[in-house]
Write a structure and sequence with these properties.
globular; 24 helices; 6-stranded mixed sheet
């Protein structure tokens, strides 16, 4: 076995590319950070490769590569590449663990952008190491008249990552400090294993990795000459022209270029909602056709996730419409007093003399009466501001930190924003944090929704796409900056006077907003990176408020009981109540909390996104034209949001129609839509002509004019969702040994909980029938809780007490869950 070490020159452009900048230019501050980090990183990188020559035979009969050890490579693509070689080089390359450790340390310190830069430098260095090693081998081989294949890496699109075991069997990579664990992960992480062939029958590749032979067309590191096609896109009232690389997926191309395409699966061919009209007649698969009606196919409607761009296209995106976002908090919950962490303090300082030679900062601290903290950006202007204003100034304090200083004649107020980041929607509130006055409200759709309707889809995106985490993080930062600018323009205020943002959301949303990986939340044992309250400088996240201002997140209970639930408990005051209260926030996950001032117990029911319209055949979010209520004894039998023609059905309408079908005997208690002859209820028999087949399954025709059905599959989705929530409620009651009569109030929180018919929810068993009269819809309790924490430091501290007090029950590990879930599936 040979070992070679190298000195590398790290390319700035490669680091930028690994940070996700493919076509756009990074901002100057980022470029400066990258240059400085590269300079410092040379001391952390130890580039080294171990490799050995391995003989093999090519089996013409079955097209496999067979080594003397008896091991084989069966993948035809790889065998085809290697068959002309005289021998194979097996190798492991690494830049050691220094850069990886530095990146991890920066992340732990909350310096997320710096951590990402160091991680990108590690990737760029590893790529450069492979390039240098390949160049050496190719030069050596050419002297013998041999050619060298490109490097072939286990884990690419054609070779299973488990094949790394073959390489490590033939190489003692521990000699260069690299080991392979049982999950086929190398440590240090910044390492690569690969094989390549050398021989007279081999033509040397242009590069160590020939991108033209890789099927991953969307790779941001692709280096082949591009063939581009012009995609002209019409969406909403806008028009855009996009240069799409040949073979690129249309859905991903549109999303990555900022075109909002309705979807709930993130482009994984499961939801059937990413509908577009294309100008060209393109090949279509049976799988895609199953998701489109005959009428849609005649109109040229296609699913963008099934289309690969191989020509110029004109595309019209079929828009769902604007989503209705609940921003109001309904009920009597209020804040006792305003006591924010940020305050302005007027200081009349003694002018320096020969007798009084205290430094400027000491002079400020003495006048304040305590030793303050001061960031460099304020310290650097301190002398100038003091002299200019004759030592008569106003300092803005956040706790004991001076975050700005200005003349005493400044009359600017201090503002803050509370932010509720939902999986589907965002609600933001602008406050004068001195008076506690709410000045404005912003609502919109979470832009990450384009990458999937639920948190698991988004986590998968961060895992499967090299720049997935960075993209989801940055799209949220851009949205927050858009909200800040919206408030500032409407009220004529400077973003420097917005000093704090308090952020809540489920655990995944908080992780992604901070740029922290959420990948372990998706898999057992479901461990988040953090659950504590985080305070980070706005400048570290690139959020455009006061450069020394803070972004604060409320604490979280567990992977699936997040800061939004803690905020709802905080604002509802259930943790201070003598009465036992049940709080339910039904969304993609149903977060449930039961308790009072003596105990709090919680769980998360994996309801899926059915109640938000995802996974339902004609499901929609709460947009104009969505059927929101159904009553078979009314004429017409449904209403829509905005009174528009029906386009689909949203969560509250789904619950209503299922309830109505059960109530009037069109569906039995198992959820089966009955045959026409089985319906005996007088009201139900009025709708026999609506019991039909859609997509070869029993269905109920809700709206004939627009062809909107509830299918048997949809009913099963509702049963799964409501079964999970009801099972969660039952298990919490069982855990605390209480019965329905012990619960005095039921709070239904969030958008769905506030729009849903309590009557229908009880009828199908989302909540126990005995609790129907105790149910109160409390609106956006999470947003209100975030506002409480913004305006009162005491309330922020209370949120931490609540988090520590809440006992979390993991339903998947509960011995009663399966029994309760199956029981709760029935109506």
């Amino acid at each position: 076995m040979d070992i070679r070490s190298y000195e590398l020159e790290i390319d700035e452009k490669s680091v930028i590319r690994y940070l996700g900048y493919k076509d756009s230019k990074p901002y100057k501050n980022l470029l400066d950070k990258v240059k400085n980090a590269i300079h410092d990183a040379y001391d952390l990188i130890e580039p080294v490769v171990c490799f050995d020559r391995v003989s093999f035979e090519y089996d013409d009969e079955d097209g496999t590569i067979r080594f003397l050890s008896g091991d084989t490579i069966n993948e035809k693509h790889i065998a085809e590449m290697l068959k002309g070689a005289e021998y194979v080089i097996m190798a492991v390359a690494t830049v050691k663990g220094g850069i990886e450790n530095a990146s991890s340390r920066l992340f732990k310190e909350g310096k997320y952008l710096d951590g990402m830069i160091y991680d990108a430098i590690g990737n760029a260095a590893l790529d450069k190491l492979c390039e240098n090693f390949y160049s050496d081998l190719a030069n050596d081989a050419s002297k013998e008249g041999f050619g060298v294949t490109e490097m072939i890496f286990p884990g690419d699109d054609k070779w299973d990552i488990a094949s790394q075991k073959l390489i490590f069997k033939n190489l003692d990579a521990s000699k260069i400090g690299v080991i392979l664990d049982e999950n086929n992960m190398m440590h240090p992480v910044k390492s690569l294993s690969f094989v390549l062939g050398i021989g007279k029958g081999v033509k040397s590749s242009f590069s160590h990795h020939d991108c033209s032979k890789c099927d991953f067309f969307q790779c941001i590191y692709r280096k082949t000459k591009k063939i581009n096609h012009l995609v002209k896109v019409k969406y909403k009232d806008e028009y855009k022209e996009i240069l799409a690389e040949d073979g690129s997926n249309l859905f991903k191309t549109l999303i990555e270029n900022g075109v909002p395409v309705p979807n709930s699966c993130g482009g994984y061919h499961t939801c059937g909602k990413c509908k577009v009209i294309v100008s060209e007649k393109l090949p279509i698969t049976d799988e895609e056709m199953k998701n489109l009606s005959d009428v849609e196919l005649k109109k040229g409607v296609r699913l963008s996730c099934f289309i690969n761009v191989d020509r110029d296209l004109f595309v019209t995106v079929l828009d769902e419409g604007e989503v209705t976002v609940l921003t109001e908090s309904i009920g009597v919950f209020g804040l006792d007093s305003v006591n924010s962490r940020v305050k302005k303090v007027h200081l009349k300082l003694d002018v320096p003399t020969l007798v009084d030679q205290r430094d400027d900062f000491k002079r400020v601290c003495d006048t304040l009466g305590f030793d303050a903290k001061i960031p460099l950006s304020v310290l650097s202007v301190l002398s100038y501001v003091l002299e200019k204003n004759d030592y008569d100034v106003v300092v803005t304090l956040r706790k004991h930190e001076i975050i700005s200083i200005e003349g005493a004649d400044s009359v600017d107020n201090i503002y803050g924003i509370s932010l509720d980041i939902g999986t589907t929607t965002i609600a933001a509130y602008l406050y004068d944090i001195v008076t506690g006055e709410m000045m404005d409200v912003f609502s919109g759709v979470n832009p990450q929704r384009l990458y999937g309707a639920d948190v698991i889809s988004r986590i998968n995106y961060t895992i499967t796409e090299d720049d997935g985490l960075y993209r989801l993080h940055m799209i949220m930062i851009e949205e927050i900056n858009k909200i800040v600018n919206y408030f500032c323009k409407r009220h004529g205020i400077s973003n420097e006077n917005i000093c704090e943002i308090v952020m809540v959301g489920n655990t995944v949303m908080v992780h992604l907003a901070l740029g922290v990986s959420a990948k372990n939340i998706a898999n057992s044992p479901y461990i988040p990176v953090f659950t504590s309250s985080i305070e980070v400088k706005s400048r570290d996240l690139g959020i455009d408020i006061n450069k020394e201002g803070y972004i604060v997140t409320l604490p979280m209970v567990a992977s699936y009981v997040g800061a939004d639930t803690v905020a709802a408990v905080l604002s509802s005051r259930m943790s201070e109540s003598d009465d036992t209260i049940l709080l339910i926030d039904i969304g993609t996950n149903g977060e449930i909390v039961l308790g009072n001032k003596d105990f709090l117990i919680s769980c998360s029911a994996a309801a899926g996104p059915a109640f938000e319209g995802a996974g339902i055949t004609f499901g929609l979010s709460g947009v104009e034209g969505a059927i929101d209520h159904v009553d078979l004894e009314s004429d017409p039998i449904f209403t829509t949001i905005g009174g528009k023609a029906a386009k689909g059905i949203c969560g509250s309408g789904i619950v209503d129609v299922v309830s109505e079908l059960f109530k009037h005997g069109i569906m039995d208690n198992t959820g089966r839509i009955l045959e026409i002859e089985e319906v005996v209820d007088p009201v139900g028999r009025n709708f026999l002509n609506r019991i039909v087949k859609y997509d070869d399954m029993p269905s109920f025709l809700i709206d004939e004019a627009n062809g909107i059905y509830l299918t048997q599959k949809d009913v099963r989705q509702v049963q799964l969702a409501k079964g999970a929530i009801r099972a969660g409620i039952n298990i919490l009651m069982k855990e605390m040994n209480i019965v329905e009569e012990d619960i005095k109030k039921v709070y239904l929180a969030g958008g769905f909980g506030s729009y849903i018919s309590i009557e229908s929810a009880a009828a199908i068993g989302i909540i126990p029938k005995g609790l129907k009269e105790k149910a109160v819809q409390i609106g956006n309790a999470a947003g209100l809780g975030a506002s409480f924490a913004l305006l009162s430091d005491e309330m922020l501290e209370k949120s931490k007490v609540i988090r520590d007090k809440v006992k979390y029950i993991e339903l998947s590990n509960n011995p009663y869950f399966q029994e309760e879930f199956l029981k709760s599936m029935y109506f």
